[in-house]
Amino acid sequence: MDASQANSMLNSFDAEMEDIELEVSHREGTQLITFILGSEKYGLKILKVRELISYPEVMTRIPGMPDFIVGMINLRGLVIPVIDLRLRFEMEIGEYDKYTVIIIVQVENKMIGIIVDSVADVVYLEDDKTQASADISTNIDTQFIQGVANIRDDMVILLDVDHLLSEQELIQLNN
Amino acid sequence: MTPDQLPIEEFLEEADELVQDLESSLLELESNLKDRSIIDKIFRAMHTIKGGAGMVMQSELSDYAHHLETLLDQVRSGGVECTSELVSTLLKANDCIISFIQKIRGEGEVDEELKETTLKELKSFSNQSPQPVVEEKKEVPVPQKNAEEVHQTGQQTYLITLKFNEDFLTQGSDPLLVLSQLKELGEISVIPHLSELPDYKVFDPEKLYLWWSIKLTTEQSITDIENVLIFFQEGNQLKIENIDTPDEEQTQVRNAHQQMIQEAESSEVPDKDTEVIEKDGVQEKEEKEEETTQSQATGEEDALSSTTDNSSQPPQKPVEKTEETQVVQSIRVQVDKLDKLQNLVGETVINQARLMRLSEEITAIDENLGEMVLQFVEDNETSVRELQDQIQQVRMIEMGSIFTPMKRIVRDFAVKNQKQITLDIHGADTELDKTVTEQLHGPLVHLIRNAMDHGIEKPDERNNKGKDRTGTITLRASHQEGFVIVEIEDDGKGMDPQKIYEAGVRKGIVAEGEQLSDMEAFQLIFQPGFTTTTEVTSTSGRGVGMDSVKKQIESLLGNIEIQSKVNQGTLVRLKLPLTLAIIEGMIVKVGQQVFTLPLLSVVEALKPLDRQVKHMKRSGELIDIRGEFIPLIRLHKKLQLKDALEDPKEGLVVVVQQSNQKHCLLVDEILDQRPVVIKNLEDHFIQVPGLAGATIMGDGSISFILDVSSLVNS
Asked: Of the candidates A118, A79, A125, which has an alpha carbon nearest to the alpha carbon of residue A102?
């Protein structure tokens, strides 16, 4: 190994160290991705999100499924079902446009795409700023809601993605 | 070493294999009680289990294995006679070891009861008065009197050839250790042979190129020498010959050997001379093997001189044929790694199809460029196909791995139920995807149990019917048209379609007065609930849980068929895809959507004429195909699709067969027929009835694979 190689190794090591320090300096709490649906802002734990994609050219309908399950998409070889959150929450049907985003959510090993109007931001939610869902009332069913939080003077509804996708829920709907 | 670092995983994997080997060796031994080589094999396996268990601190198992090893050692030395009772006990002990292994894996408890009984039985065997020491069968022919004579007359001389496998050193063994162990037995002289030594350019310092001839003069018996070498028998070429018999030929050999030793001692430097000498040694052995009469004793000198003359020739080919074992190198790979690899290959196959489309599009715009791209894509296609074949090959295992355990099941059942049953296995080397093979185990056990329980009669009953007292169950596997066919056939009492029909009527599965063909009647036994009353099973003679067997086979995208003749027997035929990852598919269009039908269930496709379409009041629509009336299923209705053709005469009907039943599926058109990569839907939140999976088409769109069985039954 010559001197320049050694140097470059040291440099990359330093860079790595900086990254680690950055991580540590973050505040305690949960990182959320926020998105818009109708006139409201929702939040989803970012650790559940695998990626964001725009509405694809091809969507294959699944025979015999309720309307809110809009079909399946091919995501680089993975076949993933997609649900429309507006239809799931029985809101009026929205047009799919260039802001329409499919959030690919992964819970355990299962993946599903969720269609939302648009994605807003990535924010930190400090643990003590959440209110349980029992205290609030919105025009949607509270069973999929974990609570609400006030983030930068904005109300964010926290989506309970595990519940939204629970098997019993979906089977019930299938029948 | 802390417990975390113990190679438990490795031990368990090895142990799994060993207990399997043990079981098949024991079953082999049962019909060949006197075969020394099998006993040796069992002893070695037991010793390895003991050692391995000790290494991973499983003293309980290692103690248990030690008891077994001790007994086996006595069997080997002839101190304990090998009887079928002994084998039975050993089989039970093997089960007990399996329970130990399961416990170590954290999946169960040790079968203490079994442990106690087997230990007790083991003890009773070793307490037997020792049999007179008679050496039964040796790998090397040795005069019978040998063992006793040795102790009286003293020394015997043996010529030992040690030709270890190249990877001997990397496997953690040390030839020096073996030599020093042999040295302890008596007086030895050792000649190393350099003939296998390669050119220094290709010399690999981790490989063993040397081999040895050893003259050992000892008071010990040949068994003691064998004991030193016992763990190296497999994969290495080892030979022990007694050269101390007064036989004239043998003397010749010994003299030649001595001469060889002298010459070797006189020339320390490995040069051409040594090569000549060792060739002589080789030649002698060959000679010795071939010669059966003394009259050829003179031939030896000729051989000696002739090889000396040819000393300038390249080293001779390996000579020994007796213990030739093919050493296949292998590594263990976790199945999920293979799965990932297979998925990736699947992606590549799909992308290849997309590339092909793309190059066509390019050709439309720029012919020259398109031509170049196409050329490249076609080259790539070859590699992708090859890749796909190879990865599929890697996942293939021989059906024997699930066939062999059936022997034990049949044996145990026959003993317990006083029946005489032989299990004939054919095509155990037929290869099938590992996952499919493993999932086939359950259904296979079920079908064999059925055949033994309900098919094969008791010996007396068989006698009265004029059949052989011993019933036969035949297990066959073969490749046919890209599928694997597994057949389970017995020569038992068979099934009477009339009785099945009556039972079906009683159970309310069939309406009274409904006409059923024999095929349709057999179909009834696959109905859930058909089997629940003992009355039905005793009259129909079959059918315990056949519906679950059918379900399992269908979940493998396979097909099950049954044929039976009263008093002649029953044949169950399973048709399975080679792999679960890629199947042959027929691509059909219904309305706006494209679906894939597994080709395995497709019988034919046709455009029906007006007169072929019949309407029945109760059964709905039927299609008359060469006199056979087959119910029509309108796929667009089943799948609630719009814009599909509704007139069977305009579209096409695809005849599918599931179990013994046929159905016609109405589709708009057939687009293609080709292998498709299956994407499982089971991992999803949404379970879709009627769909077996999905596949990705060349244009990136998704096509669902239809689950024919659930479609026709819903």
From this structure: A118
